[in-house]
Amino acid sequence: MKARIHPTARIEEGVEIGPGTAIWDHVHVRGPDTRIGAECIVGEKTYVAYGVCIGDRVKLNAFVYVCNAVTIEDGVMVAAGTIFTNDRFPRATTADLRRVWPSAPDEHTRPTLVREGATIGAGCVVGSDLVIGRFAMVGMASVITRSVPDFHLVVGHPARSIGCVCRCGEPFVRFEPGAKPSPGEYRCAVCGLRYAVEAAGVRELTPPA
Q1: Beta pairing, strands 194-198 & 201-204
Q2: Are the beta carbons of 9 and 26 closer than 8 angstroms?
């Protein structure tokens, strides 16, 4: 199945788009060295910079900004209005204000990795040099300033953990913001998958076949 690209979308040279992917109106995908995998959805007016790597079955809703040095693995959901960043201390010009800094990646560019199955809610701002873990969930309008562990639910400004979530998206344990979950085994009340919460993190006991 070929990719479906809206006639108003702008896809630059050097962009690879997988089969079954839908690119909606006024999307801009820059090249070179940009990859969007198979069966993805890229919503209207979303911007994807050059050098970005996006896996299969990823959903980017409308008005998402994905800058250089971002990698998004398979099955990730990025809701509308989310903004990624890649420079902790950006300036428009040199210190004497006489020269504009180029937009190309340099020693100040910091990467961000969004691991498989994660969800980033609407209106989030994602910092740089961090990892959003497998099947983690970021609540809407959160500001991500540090890495998010696998299967954790985070919210706020800055975002802090308030629970752990199942693969299906349902929280299976909650706790006070910034605290740690009590160790033990937990079962998702919705789908029945089981997890072990340990000092090292969340471990799946019954991963899908």
Answers
A1: antiparallel
A2: yes
Q: Report the alpha-carbon distance of residue 74 to residue 44 in Å, rounded.
A: 20
Contact in structure between 82 and 76 (CB atoms under 8 Å): no
Cα end-to-end distance, the chain, whole Å: 26
**Cβ pair 165, 154 in contact under 8 A:** no
Token pair in block for residue 80: 């509308």
Q: Which helix (H) or strand (E) holds 16?
A: strand 15-17
DSSP lists the bridge partners of residue 93 as: 100
Return the pLDDT at 209: 66
Cα separation, 32 vs 185, in Å, equals 46
Instruction: Give the integer Cα–Cα distance in Å for 68 and 52.
Output: 6
How high is the pLDDT of residue 131? Answer: 98
What is the pLDDT at residue 80?
Answer: 98
For 4-179, CATH gives: 2.160.10.10
Write out residues in the chain with pLDDT < 50, as ranges.
none
CB contact set of 87 (below 8 Å; sequence gap of 6+): 108, 109, 110, 128
| Of 126, 129, 27, 137, residue with least CA distance to 77 | 137
Query: What is the per-residue pLDDT for 86?
Result: 96
Give me the half-sphere count of Cα atoms (radius 13 Å) on the Cβ side of residue 88: 11
Q: Domain residue spans in the chain?
A: 4-179
